[in-house]
Amino acid sequence: MRVLLTGGAGFIGRHVHTRLIAEGHEVTVLDSFRPDVHAHKPAPRPGLIVGDVRDAEVVAGALDGIDTVIHLAAKVGLGVDLDDLDDYVSSNSLGTAVLLRQLAKMKIRHFIYASSMVVYGEGRHDCDHHGHVAPGPRRTEDLDAGHFEPPCPACGAQLRPGLVEEDAVLDPRNAYAASKLNGEHLSQTWARETGGRVTALRFHNVYGPGMPRNTPYAGVAAIFRSALERGEAPKVFEDGNQRRDFIHVHDIATAVTTSAAALPHQPPFTAYNVGSGTISTIGDVATELSRAYDGLAPVVTGQYRLGDVRHLTASSDRLRNELGWKPTYDLSTGLADLLSSARG
After folding, report:
1. Distance between CA atoms of residues 328 and 316, nearest Å
2. What is the pTM of this model?
3. In this predicted structure, what is the pLDDT of residue 142?
4. Can you give the pLDDT at residue 64?
5. pLDDT at residue number 166
6. What is the mean pLDDT of each run of 10 residues along the chain (344 residues)?
7. Number of C-alpha atoms within 13 angstroms, CB side, residue 127?
8. What's the rounded Cα separation, in Å, for the pair 214 and 79?
9. Using CA atoms, how far apart are residues 17 and 29, in angstroms rounded to an integer?
C-alpha cells in the first residue's frame, strides 16, 4: 500500500507508522505538530509533510500517489469545556471533511478513520426489571453525594454494566465524542457517494510507550504515571470502580494495519471496536502502576467530571472474528512494557 498517515507524529501515529514500514508499505506522514501536543515543529523532509488537514492545498499535495489513507489526526481529550467546542469541530469535523473532499477529487477509495469508544456514551446497561436501558445523564446532586452509579431511568434500580457491540445506539456526551461521531457520519456519506470503503476503528483507552505526558492529550494512565514519577500518589476520581478497557498501543497499531489491508474486501462502511477484551477499573490501573513504580498507593478523591461516563466497555469480537486480529498484551504485561520503556 501507498499510505498517507495523518497524525503520524502523534502517540498512536508513531506506532502505526513503525508497523506500516515493518510490513513493507510506503508511508507519507502528514502532521500539523499542534503546539499543545508537540514542543517543536520540524522542517518538512522526505516522507514527512508538516501541515494541517484543514488546508486543502496541503492535503492535495500529500495525497499524490496515495491509494490508502489512515486518518488519526485529531484534537482529543474529554471536551467538557464549551470554550473549546469550536476547536473540536474545526480540528476534527472540518479536518475530516476537507480530507474526504480531496479523496473524492483524487479518486482515492480506501479510508481508515480513527474513531473512539466515547461515541457510545454510557455504554450498555441492563435493568433486572426493564432489560436493556440507556442511562440518562448523571445528576450533579447524586455525584456530590457520592452516588456514582447511573440508575435505571424507568424505575431507579441499580443497573448492570455490560459490553457494547458495534450496532448499539450511539450517544456521544461531550464535544470530543460528538466530533468523532460526526467524522463517522461524514465518512459514510463519502463512501456512499464515491463507492469508497471506510473502516471506523473505535479505540478504547490506549496506553503504552511514548504516551503523552501533562498535556490535554494525556489519558488517565499517563496522568497516574506522571504523578508517580513526581513522587506523588495517583489521584483516582469517583470511587475508582469505573470500568474501562485499556489497550496497549502496539495492539492498536496492528488493528489499524490489519484493517487497512482488508479494506478492498470490506463493505462501504464498517465499524470495529478495538479493545483488549479485559475489563479493568480505573482503580485497578492506578494500583498496578503504583506497584510497578514502587510508589505511593492511590488516593480515591471522590471528585468527578460531569463529562465522564461511569462504565464503558465493549466487545471486540467482530474485529477478531472477521479479520483475525487479536491483542497480545493484557494490562499486567502492558504496564510492565510501559515501565520498561520509561526506564530504558
Report:
1. 14
2. 0.94
3. 93
4. 97
5. 97
6. 97 97 98 88 92 98 98 82 87 98 98 96 92 87 94 92 94 91 98 98 94 68 89 96 95 98 97 94 93 93 87 95 96 86 68
7. 17
8. 16
9. 8
Cα 216 to Cα 104, 222, 329, distances in angstroms = 33, 11, 26
Cα–Cα distance, 151 to 149 (Å, whole number): 6
Identify the residue whose cell numbers are 499486567.
332
> What are the cell numbers at 280?
479493568
Query: Chain centroid to CA 331: how far?
Result: 17
Cell 492545498 sits at which residue? 57
